[in-house]
Amino acid sequence: MPTESVALGDLLRKAGVGQAEFLRVALEEMLQGLMEGDVDAQVGAQRYERAAERATYRNGHRDRDWNTRLGPVHLQIPKLRQGSYFPDFLEPRRRSEQALTAVIQEAYVNGVSTRKVDALVQALGMTGLKKSAVSVVCAGLDDRVTAFRQRPLPGPYPYVWLDAKYLKIHEGDRVLSLAYVVATGVNGAGDREVLGCDVGPSESKEFWTGFLRDLTARGLSGVQLVISDAHSGLVAAIGTVFQGAAWQRCRVHALRNLLRHVAKGQQAMVAAVIRTIFVQPTHKAALTELAKVAEALAPRFPQVADDLRDMAADLLAFMHFPAEHWRQIYSTNPLERLNREIGRRADVVGIFPNRVATLRLCGAVLMEQSDEWAAAPRRYFSQESMAKLPAPPALPAAVTA
After folding, report:
1. How far apart are CA 335 and CA 323, in angstroms?
2. Which residue, among 166, 174, 172, 196, has the nearest Cα to 184 in the 3D structure?
3. 3-state helix, strand, coil in the chain (%, to 5)
């Protein structure tokens, strides 16, 4: 036996391969022969054999690398014209790849860069993945995100929040700042939902109108109040699509715009005076207070006074709805918190390679948030408070023409 071992070592050295390499090649040959035998049995005939019991024919091979302790084993898995073949000994590997895919997708959605994902894969004992391979794996999210974005929206949604966030995205050979828009809403039962998202070149009226009409085509209806900032294209689209619904100008954005006309040292004082409007118990009392505040500010801050009077109706629209809802519906803050979470994940990516990748990541974040809202122990608004909503508008909630 010792003599035979020395002879084998001499033979390997003369062949120019190490023992580990010899074992790897031997394993490769053995597994290839095992697969060929399995396929012969499944086909009912050996290669080039004519047999009456033949069930199908071979159709080439597909390459497959199998990572083992001996190193990567290159296999050629036989293909069939009818039916399919996959070797039993690779099933554990298939399950591990599914688990690895899940890990990569989870890391991607949580804002882990593709390079860090590659390091994570190596830490799990794998051989690592190229950056492009990680993107291919993550593309498995696309079907789920698309189904989520295109799902039906049954039933009325009295409240709808709209907002946009700008992200850097490759378009051809340029990097552009494109608008990622999000819509959330509260349904008739008082539950909050993510209604939709999309990417567009800008917040133009045409883009917002198309986005809102897509929501109505999926079933969005019964809209009584839309909450957003005062971007001209968005406001115009809301008036076109949601005729009969009220518009609430985001109080936070409005106050920020008003204070632009005030010196920095006086902004805190002016803001405190303006906030007295919103602590009034009724819409009528708030209008009265707004008139007093505008009159008091006019001598020193005429532009603030004029703007405050002009935006009065839109700034106080939330007061026509149940008082239990005021804190959530007077601004886009609930949606902006969601946008900040999207931004946190997107900051790791930096520049998205294309719009599809943008929708993949941000859409997955929205799916995650929607699931959390659905599993929340309490409704966003109680059913008792939802019962206090005013009657729906007489005009159609959506115009699709």
Report:
1. 20
2. 196
3. 55, 15, 30
> DSSP assignment, residue 221?
B
Contact 198, 179 (CB under 8 A): no
| Element holding 334 (H helix, E strand) | helix 333-349
pLDDT at 191 over 90: yes
Q: Which residue in the block uniquely carries the two structure tokens 């005009």?
A: 395
Confidence class for position 396, pLDDT limits 50, 70, 90: very low
Cβ contact 365:342 at 8 Å: yes
Cα(72)–Cα(338) distance, rounded to whole angstroms? Answer: 44
pLDDT higher than 90, residue 275: yes
What is residue 84's predicted lDDT score, i.e. its pLDDT?
Answer: 76
The answer to whether 73 and 51 have CB atoms below 8 angstroms apart is no
> What is the radius of gyration, based on Cα positions, of the chain?
32
Q: Is residue 401 packed enough to be buried (19+ CB in 10 Å), middle (13-18) or exposed (0-12)?
A: exposed
Are 199 and 355 spatial neighbours (Cβ–Cβ below 8 Å)? yes
Query: Percentage of the chain with pLDDT > 70?
Result: 77
Whole-number pLDDT of residue 268 = 94
Q: What is the mean pLDDT of residues 275-297?
A: 95
HSE-up of residue 6 (Cα within 13 Å, Cβ side): 3
Pairing assessment for the beta strands 225-228 and 246-249 based on DSSP bridges: parallel
Q: Which two tokens stand for residue 130?
A: 């190229």
Beta bridge partners of 163: 182
Question: Per-residue confidence at 31, pLDDT binned at 50, 70, 90?
Answer: confident
24 CB-near residues (< 8 Å, 6+ apart): 68, 70, 71, 73
Classify residue 325 as exposed, middle or buried by CB count within 10 Å of its CB (0-12, 13-18, 19+): buried
**Residues facing 177 on adjacent strands:** 168
CA dihedral (344, 348, 350, 356) positive or negative: negative
